[in-house]
């Protein structure tokens, strides 16, 4: 399919400039075992990542907090080709101590994203959703906090590194992951979603997962692994070995570069450039074929801009 | 609107399973039930006794050992003896870090002294002190995150 040119042209009309990043999953040769002989190559598709919408936030870092998510939804619905699915990589809602209000925010968020012109929506919790009740309200409204699904030749894994106390995945989830991966061929392309980074990006700012290295060790034998996450409210790209990690921009306020200032505080809202640093991510998934063997997930980050 | 063809993760269940914790080769039992982790509350999901390679003799006053990965805790020693503190912040459950003088939480900035008392909010409750035992006299130390002991307790 590769509709990205069309999409880009259309986005320009929408006022969304795109920055494309090619996430080559690996320099390895043919992913033997991905495609059974005689089976047609899985068709390429695209999906969208939205992150850190913090529904319910009120503060100077985003005076249009209630308008930002609807604006992002409009942008997604304006894409020339509707994505196959949308994934929200956590912090759907801003935290509150009041369990009723927490559920009210989640319910309103659900209503709003029901307006996305897309068949399937996948949700991950962030610590703002799950920290106060270990994910109880999230599970009530959105279902399991970690799960897998298969689409277009890819195996997708949603990990929860926010619900268990201790900033970790936890032993139970790690053994669940090990079991899930044990049945797969190492040529199976994997895409992993998480809220926090799975590697130590900047632990002083809670930009780490205590036992993330254990998850990466389980993923290590697989030739094509890409991790997409949120939490840090900015685009960020790092390789740990052959595993690529890409953080997405938020939809509430940007945060400064890791360790670039003494305190982790929102980048102030600039009335001259509203929504600066906010955006969404449009991802192409190419599972590979005999002719083009390496699986890859190139993506385009689309900033939210004023109409 | 739960994910279309998503398979649920390992959900809380009553059965306890055993596994080998790589680094230490310690057997730990898993209880998988998310709960609050404030002082006095039930222990966190992975709470199972951990066996450390430390002994009474190997930990000198002033030393701090990080066992967050193995069991969400720190092992410390002062002039009075050895004690253990949970590493789980009593505010929202993030993992606190040793700062050299005390503990800081990277999530919302709570601070605790080396005895686990709050020196800076938003946390209000101190870090729990955990039961430390010698497996045998002079032998390795075992810490049980499920057992809270009074702050003055020392081995
Ligand atoms: S979780 Fe530690 S300060 Fe909030």
Short account of what is shown:
The complex is a heterodimer of chains A (307) and B (155). With 307 residues, chain A is α/β, with parallel strands linked by helices.
What this model shows, in words?
The complex is a heterodimer of chains A (307) and B (155). Chain A has one domain (7-300): Purple Acid Phosphatase, chain A, domain 2. Chain A starts with a helix and ends with a strand. In chain A, the strands form two sheets. In chain A, strands 1-12-11-2-3-4 form a six-stranded mixed sheet, with no helix packed on it. Mean pLDDT of chain A is 87; it is low at 1-17 and 22-42. With 307 residues, chain A is of the alpha/beta class. The longest helix of chain A has 15 residues, at 99-113. In chain A, α6 (171-182) runs parallel beside α7. Chain A has helices spanning 4-14, 65-77, 99-113, 127-130, 136-142, 171-182, 212-219, and strands at 19-21, 45-50, 85-89, 120-124, 147-151, 154-158, 190-193, 225-229, 236-240, 243-247, 279-285, 299-303. With 155 residues, chain B is mainly β. Chain B contains one helix and 13 strands; from the N terminus they run βββββαββββββββ. The radius of gyration of chain B is 16 Å and the shape is globular. The A-B interface holds A 85, 95, 110, 113-114, 119-123, 127, 131-136, 142-150, 158, 160, 163-168, 170-173, 175-176, 203-206, 210-211, 214 and B 1-11, 17, 19, 21-22, 28, 30, 32, 34-37, 44-46, 68-69, 72, 87-88, 92-95, 97, 106-107. β5 of chain A pairs antiparallel with β1 of chain B. Bound molecules: FE2/S2 (inorganic) cluster. FE2/S2 (inorganic) cluster is lined by residues 89, 91-94, 105, 107-110, 122-123 of chain B. The site of FE2/S2 (inorganic) cluster has 12 residues of chain B, from loops.
Set down the secondary structure blueprint.
The complex is a heterodimer of chains A (307) and B (155).
Chain A: H1 4-14, E1 19-21, E2 45-50, H2 65-77, E3 85-89, H3 99-113, E4 120-124, H4 127-130, H5 136-142, E5 147-151, E6 154-158, H6 171-182, E7 190-193, H7 212-219, E8 225-229, E9 236-240, E10 243-247, E11 279-285, E12 299-303
Parallel strand pairs in A: 2-3, 3-4, 6-7, 7-8, 8-10
Antiparallel strand pairs in A: 1-12, 2-11, 5-6, 9-10, 11-12
Helix pairs in contact in A: 6-7
Chain B: E1 7-8, E2 17-21, E3 26-30, E4 50-55, E5 64-67, H1 68-71, E6 73-78, E7 81-86, E8 97-98, E9 102-104, E10 111-113, E11 118-120, E12 129-134, E13 140-149
Antiparallel strand pairs in B: 2-3, 4-13, 5-6, 6-7, 7-12, 8-9, 9-10, 10-11, 12-13
The complex binds FE2/S2 (inorganic) cluster.
The site of FE2/S2 (inorganic) cluster (FES) has 12 residues of chain B, from loops.
